[in-house]
Amino acid sequence: MEKIIDKLFRESLRVVEDFVKENARNLAFVAEKISTVFTADRKLMICGNGGSAADAQHMAAEFVNRFMMERPPLPAIALTTDTSIITSIGNDYSFDEIFSKQVKAIGMEGDMLLAISTSGNSGNVISAVKAARGLGIYTVALTGRDGGRLSPLVDMALVVKSNTTPRIQEAHCFALHTLCQLVDHILFQQGIRED
Fold first, then answer.
1. What is the pTM of this model?
2. What is the total count of domains within the chain?
3. Which pLDDT value is given to residue 191?
4. 112: domain range?
5. Measured between alpha carbons, how far is 116 from 31 in angstroms, rounded to an integer?
6. Which of 47, 76, 86, 191 has the CB geometry, 3.0–4.6 Å to 63, for a possible disulfide?
7. CA atoms 76, 78, 79, 83: torsion sign
8. In this structure, are residues 116 and 46 in contact, taking their beta carbons and an 8 Å threshold?
9. Can you give the pLDDT at residue 170?
10. Tens digits of per-residue pLDDT, 30-72?
11. Which residues contact residue 63 at a Cβ distance below 8 angstroms, ignoring those fewer than 6 apart?
């Protein structure tokens, strides 16, 4: 079992390292965009399925509560949390519309949508991106493999080039934590926000 652990650890390190080498500039750019959204009194919406739904909620919590430093709450919403909305849309319309209808209801120009999908092929995440683009909302995908159908639809795609879902998710967690820390740095340690 120790050999299995060592193999998984080395594989995870390699996937995260490759992702960072390819996307460091893109992560910094996305952090700047999120910071701009927050300083303009707009919001970050986040969506995904399964483990990616948990990642969406995790990131929203880091912004609304705090990450590494004491600072005011920041407006981030996980579109994965309201079971009445999700089940009513899924029941009355289609599971593919559970995020897009929420984007249409609460999204506005100047907001951002972060769409998380390890495969890049989740129908409801793709529908959310299309709805956001129709409203003039900046879209970012955090995905894996070859980026799937999602990557060409967004303004910025952050792709973890692995075919193994757990390794993709581990890199996603690193990316989300990095974005949170960069946004805190931009907004509060560089003195852009005083409140």
1. 0.94
2. 1
3. 52
4. 2-189
5. 16
6. 76
7. negative
8. yes
9. 97
10. 999 999 999 999 999 999 999 999 999 999 999 999 999 999 9
11. 44, 73, 74, 75, 76, 180, 183
